[in-house]
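Our working data are protein records whose layout never changes between entries. The record below serves as our worked example for the rest of this section:
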Amino acid sequence: MTILTCLGDSITDCDHCFTADFLGNGYVQMLSKRFEKEGISCQVRNYGTDGFTVNRLLQRIKCENDFSSNIITILIGINDISMMADTYTPKEQQSKMLISFKQHYTELLTILTKSTSHIILMEPFLFSWPAFYETWLPLLSDMWKIIKELAESFQLPYVSFHEKLNEEARRYGYASVTVDGIHLTEQGQKFIADKLYPLLLPYCRNGFGSTL
């Protein structure tokens, strides 16, 4: 059976520890239900954790005694941006934090790519609702460049979400897509699932064994 593991923060987490299937109420659960509906044998695992930064995700993976997965998705970074964008964080410190972000993400990918080459990097996103989040966008843009560079370096796919999600919000109203400018509504989560599903489908249909 193919194993798909979704790594991330609260956007991935979606209270997965409090649902009967441990998949949460977001895109991870939606993907699992689609695979099941299509008769595709794929074990989906939610490794999202509320509040996680890339360094905390790295430490979790380092502590895993037996972490194996055929396919991995990674959506991380918005909590790092929140820390960088703090009013009292000087520009010089923000630059250092971006360097640390790149170092930690690089180490994470170095570890994960030793056991699987099927890893999808997902772009962290933000909405201009409330409007003060617009001040975070320059830092977020710098983060996108880092993740894109890592995707190219490790030869991994990179999925853009920010612009397309904001287009959805402008079309249907921000409240229909995001609850607070960071986290997603059910419609927003479905958007993520809709974009990921066709990318994951070829791998899941191949029917990998339990390990690569």
Summary: Residues 40 and 205 are 7 Å apart (CA to CA). The beta strands are 2-8, 42-48, 71-75, 119-122, 158-159. The chain has a mean pLDDT of 94.
